[in-house]
Amino acid sequence: MTFWNFFFNNKKTKIIENTIKNTGTKIFIENLKENRQKLIIYSSTNKDINLHDLEKLCDSVGWVKRPIKKVKIAIDNSFLTIAIFYYKENKKNLIGFARATSDESFNATIWDVVIHPQFQGKGLGKALMQETIKQLRYHDISTITLFADPEVIQFYKGIGFVTDPDGVKGMFWYPV
Amino acid sequence: MTFWNFFFNNKKTKIIENTIKNTGTKIFIENLKENRQKLIIYSSTNKDINLHDLEKLCDSVGWVKRPIKKVKIAIDNSFLTIAIFYYKENKKNLIGFARATSDESFNATIWDVVIHPQFQGKGLGKALMQETIKQLRYHDISTITLFADPEVIQFYKGIGFVTDPDGVKGMFWYPV
Questions:
Q1: Whole-prediction pTM
Q2: What's the complex ipTM?
Q3: Any signal peptide, and if so, which residues (chains A, B) (predicted)?
């Protein structure tokens, strides 16, 4: 993918919230450029996500392929989805995604957090999670949970997540 | 509550699945009796739960009181609720409850698992969780999760739940 050519002078992240009609909220990542052109990144809670783009994004981080039909059901039944993208020649380029299930009252659980490898380490993951938390807090949800792989535990700690508070343990049941 | 008078010869739990119209599924807990009368316990996924009964049940285990309005929203937006009860003079007596949020495709998270203290240690908690898992598996949900307080981790391990598989950690974010 030689067309990717980014210049990142620093990683300082600042979110400017300008809701733009039908496009999403503008996320300002300082000095994010492509071919010397400043890149404008958007986030959107619109569920009208191109599932093939999402599949490609998940492929890019090496996730196991999942049936698109099941992904569609999961998105439809998620309380919240956040897509992170930019426009290139009027086409949306999906570079980040997260979703949350919720009872829309007390609890939410965040799933499928992904940033395209080309855009990792630029503050986009942090911006994505801050946007997710902001949306859930807007709905007065006070317990926001997730299950973190070992390599991203520090990342989530940096955003304010804690592991095992008061000895509470995340537990899993899988079919045998 | 002197009217409670139970005789439990052993704790062996066996679930007989007889769906009874409008009442729920009969759960057979061996030798569960009240005043020498065998007690017939039912489970139901019907969301038409008396919220005051649920509040009383949560009170009985010392949970912090929650606004009924918020509880109603949480139940309405849960994928699954399981109520455990028996009939006395044609009145339902709620003695157990659990609910799960889900994307209805891949994942589910179980919340608010409660058994009335008078009925704890009789195998009802296990029956409640087995019913919850059965319902979620029926919908082909393969990752069933929960957050367990330290004192119930062993109970969930007995049902087949595992903590921190491959180092995956349950994490929480609370408003500051």
A1: 0.85
A2: 0.84
A3: none
